[in-house]
Amino acid sequence: MSRKVPYRLYLTEEQMPKQWYNLRADMKEKPDAMLNPATAKPVTFEDLCPVFCDELVKQELDNQTRYFDIPEEVQEYYKVYRPSPLIRAYNLEKALGTPAKIYFKFEGNNTSGSHKLNSAIAQAYYAKKQGLNGLTTETGAGQWGTALSEACAYYQLPLTVFMVKCSYEQKPFRKLVMQTFDAKVIPSPSDTTDIGKKILSEDPLTGGSLGCAISEAVEKAVTTPGYRYVLGSVLNQVLLHQSIVGLESKIAMEILDEYPDIVIGCAGGGSNLGGLIAPFMQDKILGKNNARFIAVEPASCPSLTRGRYAYDFCDTGKVTPLAKMYTLGSGFIPSPNHAGGLRYHGMSPILSKLYHDGYMEAVAVEQNNVFEAATFFAKQESILPAPESAHAIACAIDEALKCKESGEAKTILFGLTGTGYFDMSAYSAYHDGTMTDYLPDDAQLEEGFKSLPKIPGIQE
Amino acid sequence: MSRKVPYRLYLTEEQMPKQWYNLRADMKEKPDAMLNPATAKPVTFEDLCPVFCDELVKQELDNQTRYFDIPEEVQEYYKVYRPSPLIRAYNLEKALGTPAKIYFKFEGNNTSGSHKLNSAIAQAYYAKKQGLNGLTTETGAGQWGTALSEACAYYQLPLTVFMVKCSYEQKPFRKLVMQTFDAKVIPSPSDTTDIGKKILSEDPLTGGSLGCAISEAVEKAVTTPGYRYVLGSVLNQVLLHQSIVGLESKIAMEILDEYPDIVIGCAGGGSNLGGLIAPFMQDKILGKNNARFIAVEPASCPSLTRGRYAYDFCDTGKVTPLAKMYTLGSGFIPSPNHAGGLRYHGMSPILSKLYHDGYMEAVAVEQNNVFEAATFFAKQESILPAPESAHAIACAIDEALKCKESGEAKTILFGLTGTGYFDMSAYSAYHDGTMTDYLPDDAQLEEGFKSLPKIPGIQE
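Structure tokens for the assembled complex are given below, as produced in the milestone run.
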């Protein structure tokens, strides 16, 4: 049997990108600047340096530089687990009976189990290079914490991870993986920070939240000499590092003489989607294509489809700068759903701006549909997807079925960000028919919007 | 930074093997024939057909055919998750400060998490082609059961898995993965078979064993119309299918202009090791190299290093044919250790013969050493290995350190069969310093040897 396009295409080391791509450089309207909440002025290099590594602050604030060289040491580490394959989903196409060509970029084949390692390595590298004593971060589902633990173990950099308490208790294996990589894992809220103590005093039985864990991690970083804080999504710098995903995808598609008509990714904080679409969105902005871009979010945490485009804090404790983004309000408590990585009140300012300006679409999907798609996909493609990634699968299947109706052989590309080995209790609930969803009603959303900050002259 | 050998080498689809290699065809002395326990005569095609698919029986009994064509449908399925990468462990080499070149073939990048899928696909394919109604099998740690579930879901073939009861209870996630792929999973011993009922009546609280689960699966297969039994290791047919691992490795090394001085693999039933070494052992038998081959087994279940070369049953219930192999006796109850996939009383007859004839070495390693190696490796290579695979890592590190002492730049190839995502409780025990090992004393081994069958005129 001969065919032009292989099931899996791996780039050679020579073909791998040597620079990250900064989509902001090509955006006609830039994302609004982050604000210092104390002054309501755009944040400066000096504002951010106590929190983040110097080099990462530069990347965060740079709207102009189109390409950043990937440091040689980071390129070397990338080669330990990259390139990730671009996979043609022949079996899925056949099972759906669609004329569409479905491709996916699979980022799950590393021990962290997701794309998160791409940015973790970069951030740990810059921290080491700056001679820092250690890092702090937070983790929800555990993928980011695992990725950063791997990277910090490699660079022999101490790491403290604040893990959302309910995840800490429900996912002991994730915690054990981080500990295997020498990370110190603390359930959040904890009594090791002032904000943690305050939250615990108000609600001693709370299971915690990502926003609260961020507050603790930031506090710990700024109060520990030589420490800095790192974040796995939302920020511009993270999308920059994740552009490796899109750049590799584009090179691989060029080799195959393909180009996507539709690019699809799940969206929580936006790092995977922002990375995947970056070079294709560049083409669209420059008028070179008319591709569609679709962000897929859980119906239980619908920041793009039902949120407001406003300045908001990135955390519950309100210690971070203010970012202009689609948000449900930092006071919005996302209902428990099984895609922990998508349970965040806000959305990357870059993606928010693109969505606001009409460059990108967004859809929200319900949980049972997500797991139906995940299970169907697993049987065809022999990969057990993470619940987060399965949001993109559900949308890709929908688009492929539309092609079946219309008879169009569109080329679909989606991001398969990770594997679901640590999510089997969710699969079990789906399998047993006991999976429920928690869709916020308008009153709940209004309650969340009340937490949006008032900024005189900017946001009343 | 330029270097000749990349971190990861993936073959293209065109470079992938199109035939399996049958090592028996080149062995100067063939493994002794399996015996029918009722007649003490070599088993025939007719003896085995009620238990196994016809095509697989042919492969099992064929000592002569050097290459078997991989059916085109199986080649297609292989392309869904293969080729697996041949990885140069640059970081490990550097951390050890060894002049040795360390390569490993990584089979863990598929949802079953191990090499087991290579044979599962072949066996499910032949069963489907024969028009069977379904299959039965057993699983211990769960990797084989998961792999076969994936393959059967793909071919839409019903599957019943007897899962060793203590694993069923300790590893609920493994069970859930199998159920996601539509397998019926039954804890063994169960009341669904006569042998299960008998074992339960003797010991209602037993946690089960692999030998006992095999007995139940075989009974279920031969008493259910249109069903057959399939096994994930030990058998000649399984080693034949697993030769894909060694064949790919050899092609990749040829591309790199490399050849291993030492080939290392963990050994439970022998499928991974037998597959990995096959084409290199062919060269050795034909006098083309003088490579060393090392089987690594747990000190708690030392079939090669402390067992007897004798005819024995493959299962506890004594329903299978008799195989000539290194064995601890089918009555030997392996102490609980964390490498469930290596907890088997016997060893592949092919590997047993090679070891007996001096073509292969064997070492036994203790559990704490295994996890020390696993953790060290994970931090260098960003892959969390399965405990089984970590046995090979421990040995590879030992050999690399010997090279450091002697100053020899040997080329080491080992098999990294799988990932350890479902083994975090074992990693946790190592991390906490509570990991123990259970080494059988001579009296315990003697007790096991008493269960060896007496076969008039052959084995008294």
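The CA atoms of residues 179 and 185 of chain B lie 7 Å apart. The mean pLDDT of chain B is 94. Further analysis is deferred to the final report.
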